[in-house]
Design brief:
The chain has 2 domains: about 70 residues, no CATH class; about 300 residues, TIM Barrel. Helix content is about 30%, strand content about 15%. Helix 6 packs across helix 13 and helix 11 packs across helix 13. The mean pLDDT is about 90. The structure holds iron/sulfur cluster (2 copies). The site of one iron/sulfur cluster has 13 residues, from helix 1 and helix 2.
Length: about 475
């Protein structure tokens, strides 16, 4: 059995006061001073913690909101003096897509590296926008795959990055193929460049160290090559060489395995130019998912020079610049299906970015047909970021990210990647899947609301408008 991929983690507590969802309002007036006050019976000890918190208040601008919302004390207070309230700061986190729930669960994973447990069943809507209109089929949750989850057997999250030969040829019992270069990634995640909209703290050194510790790759703008900490080991760095940017020096390039270039009319010439000097470097072409994005991806994929395509939706997973944007999962499904139909799917690698906010989204987008994802915002959120409406240098940052400890940043990002890895194994185990490579495009493991609705009610009521 190969050595298991394992990410070392340790709890990294938040730097700022916790912003939980619930708090208890205590209307002390008329308190009966019961001997067995319900506050003492809180199994999470939150009332005592709140008293301590208030006693140690310093220059803190946040109230104590860290109640678990079990309602025990609220229901059992003999005078009905307690009531549950939702934290107004919590409600203001993120935006419509990056909801407060997503931000809070990301903070918890970055702190503990553990799989989030919501408990007491699913309380959300039956279906919703984006990834919420898709479910994974967990019906295979049987002993052999549980063994994989508990580490007695191996569930592999490894994927390949690069172009693969469509067939092998032999002559006199010897392989005659010249196989293109391939990167073996231990999990289907790449750490993407920071989003332009959220560039307040410089995360580059943190992302590089996180990629190194987790054995994955981070994309770095080629203009920043001189800031790379460890100039000797660049296997975890992929330079993004913009249209007007220069390539990093030869000795730097020679130590990397992957580069990214933006799509353009001259993209094939650019690939040839890179390959001429560095035949072993894999070139990924980044295509924005605008109205022409999926068509362009399908067209490029049939070209034998193309090894990797990185299709990028906007930060919320929507098609870019269209009036009625499609969601990234639907676009990836379209691209994947077209490549299967024209017989090129197994030859190229597809990376997807935009709207991948939770570990479940990672599993779902792989089912839709991508090989791996590139993420950035979850890594920023891991550092207690609120995802404010505006994020510019010089403005007030509620997470105080103007400066923070290097180990804090790397530790929290590493914890998040580890938590996503564990959740991917968990979901794959429940689907009876032992390899992330085989999960790719296996839509039989997913259920799609629009499709089910059409099949069930379409004959009676017609197509939904
Ligand atoms: S609602 Fe539950 S968790 Fe919150 S303070 Fe009361 S007993 Fe504790
Ligand atoms: S908390 Fe707000 S200001 Fe600070 S990095 Fe995050 S989005 Fe930017």
């Amino acid at each position: 059995m190969p050595e298991k991929y394992h990410i070392k983690t340790k709890p990294i507590p938040p730097r700022r006061p916790r912003i939980g969802k619930y708090g208890i309002v205590d209307w002390r007036e008329d308190c009966a001073r019961c001997h067995n006050c319900v506050k003492k019976a809180c199994i999470y000890d939150r009332h005592r913690m709140e008293t301590e918190y208030i006693r140690n208040l310093n220059d803190v601008d946040v109230l104590f909101f860290d109640c678990m919302g079990c309602l025990y004390c609220v229901q059992n207070c003999t005078k009905n003096l307690l009531s549950l309230s939702i934290n107004p700061t919590y409600k203001k986190l993120g935006n419509e897509y990056w909801t407060p729930d997503i931000i809070l669960t990301t903070w918890n994973q970055a702190e503990t590296a553990k799989i989030p447990v919501s408990g007491a069943g699913y309380k959300g809507k039956f279906s919703g926008h984006g990834f919420d209109s898709m479910w994974t089929d967990m019906s295979e949750i049987v002993r052999p795959t549980r063994d994989g989850i508990h580490g007695r057997e191996y569930i592999s999250t490894a994927v390949d990055v690069g172009r693969k030969a469509s067939f092998l040829s032999f002559s006199e019992r010897k392989l005659t193929n010249v196989n293109p270069p391939l990167i073996d990634m231990p999990m289907p995640i790449i750490l993407d460049m920071q989003a332009e909209e959220y560039s307040l703290p410089d995360l580059n050194p943190i992302l590089q160290e996180t990629a190194k510790r987790t054995g994955i790759i981070t994309i770095v703008d080629s203009s920043l090559y001189s800031t790379v900490q460890d100039q000797e080991d660049l296997s975890h760095i992929a330079f993004h060489i913009g249209s007007d940017s220069k390539m990093p020096p030869k000795e730097i390039m020679a130590k990397t395995n992957l580069v990214q270039i933006p799509d353009s009319s001259k993209v094939l010439d650019k690939i040839k130019e890179i390959k001429k000097s560095f035949p072993d470097i894999i070139v990924s072409v980044k295509i924005p998912l605008d109205s022409k994005g999926s068509k362009r991806a399908i067209e490029l994929a049939s070209n034998p020079e193309i090894e990797v395509l990185h299709v990028a939706a906007d930060l919320n997973g929507n098609e870019i610049g269209t009036k009625n944007p499609r969601f990234v999962k639907d676009i990836v499904r379209e691209i994947h299906t077209a490549l299967v139909d024209n017989g090129t799917r197994d030859e190229i690698t597809l990376i997807t970015s935009g709207g991948i906010a939770l570990a479940e989204h990672l599993a779902k987008i792989i089912i839709c047909g991508t090989d791996l994802v590139a993420i950035n915002l979850p890594l920023l959120i891991a550092l207690e970021c609120h995802l404010c409406k505006s994020c510019k240098p010089g403005q007030h940052c509620p997470a105080k990210l103007e400066s923070f400890d290097f180990e804090y940043g790397v530790g929290r990002m590493t914890n998040l990647v580890a938590a996503w890895h564990d959740q991917l194994i968990e979901v794959m185990g429940a689907m009876g899947m032992r390899e992330a490579r085989r999960l790719r495009g296996d839509v039989g493991r997913g259920m799609f609301f629009e499709q089910l609705e059409e099949e069930t009610f379409g004959k009676l009521f017609g197509t939904r408008k």
